[in-house]
Design a protein that fits this description.
This protein is an alpha/beta fold. The longest helix is centred in the middle third of the chain and has 23 residues. The chain contains 9 helices and 8 strands. Strand 2, helix 2 and strand 3 form a beta-alpha-beta unit. The protein has one domain: NAD(P)-binding Rossmann-like Domain (Rossmann fold, 3-Layer(aba) Sandwich). An 8-stranded mixed beta sheet has the order 3-2-1-4-5-6-7-8, sandwiched between helices. Helix 1 runs parallel beside helix 2, helix 1 packs parallel to helix 8 and helix 3 packs parallel to helix 4.
Length: 280
């Protein structure tokens, strides 16, 4: 990390849950933190809460709806125009949709928000990360990726959609994206890693109907968002992150993901198809 220069972190999905507490941890670690959220009032309230908890006033907000790639592009432009460095990018924003929905760009919504948006944002901010080296990219994945497979030709509008499959596949994409990204960068410049934060009692499952009922029944057995943020904060602040480059981390420990997530050829194909879909 840079010597006496203020380090800058960007955390997406930071108006609540894991993202909020990750931002608090990074602000406490002395970083200037930019938090991305969708709703202005909630994101501004999160900014004030982070300042209160961290005793740091170096907290800013940017707004974007990650279901719209145009807004991801606008967020990147806004960040690049106002910050000459980026030391840590935490791709945390995520969606667990109980219904099959199509995004504004024509993609299945969970895939669009959970994979295409962070893929695009990372690529748009990549050069700024590289010039800020050593930098870190941290992707929040999930154990939900296990027992899932992806069909590269059927990503945008899968025919066998279910809520669980959509979420699990998007998290498998997060791990494959991290694997391929790590193969393309020097760990001495940028360390790319992904993680499972634990089964965290956030608002992601509060979507009404049976989904919310099941979520509420499971909540007593889940960890809180403070504990869920421990691993991303660890990866953002650990003195030597290079052992985690390209890895999948659970409870601060390198862990082997499901076998499809280890497929280098699949990771390259996903990268190429994602590049085509987001038009970069």
């Amino acid at each position: 990390m840079a010597g006496n220069v203020e380090r800058i972190a960007l955390v997406t999905g930071a108006s609540s849950g894991i993202g909020l507490h990750t931002a608090i941890g990074l602000a406490r670690a002395g970083m200037g933190v930019v938090i991305a959220g969708r709703d202005r009032a909630r994101t501004e309230a999160a900014r004030r809460f982070i300042i209160e908890c961290s005793r740091s006033d170096r907290v800013e907000i940017v707004l974007a709806d990650f279901s719209r790639l145009a807004e991801v592009r606008r967020l990147a432009e806004e960040f690049l125009s106002s910050h000459d460095r980026l030391d840590v990018l935490v791709n945390n924003a995520g969606l667990f949709s109980p219904k099959y929905r199509i995004s504004a760009d024509g993609f299945e919504l969970t895939f669009a928000v959970n994979h295409l948006a962070p893929f695009l944002l990372t690529n748009l901010l990549f050069e700024r990360l590289k010039t800020s080296a050593p930098a870190r990219i941290i992707n929040v994945a999930s154990e939900a990726h296990r027992h899932n497979r992806i069909d590269i030709g059927n990503l945008a509008r899968p025919q066998d959609w279910t809520m669980a499959k959509a979420y699990g596949r998007s998290k498998l994409c997060n791990i494959l994206f991290t694997k391929e990204l790590a193969s393309r960068v020097d760990a001495n410049e940028i360390v790319a890693t992904c993680l499972h934060p634990g089964m965290v009692a956030t608002a992601i499952g509060q979507r009404g109907g049976l989904v919310e009922l099941g979520w509420r029944l499971m909540k007593p057995f889940m960890i809180g968002p403070v504990q869920g943020a421990e691993t991303p904060v660890f990866l953002a602040t650990v003195a030597d992150p290079t052992p985690f480059h390209g890895g999948y981390v659970v409870r601060k420990t390198l862990t082997q993901p499901g076998s499809p997530a280890l497929d280098s050829r699949l990771a390259r194909r996903l990268w190429d198809e994602s590049t085509r879909l987001v038009e970069i």
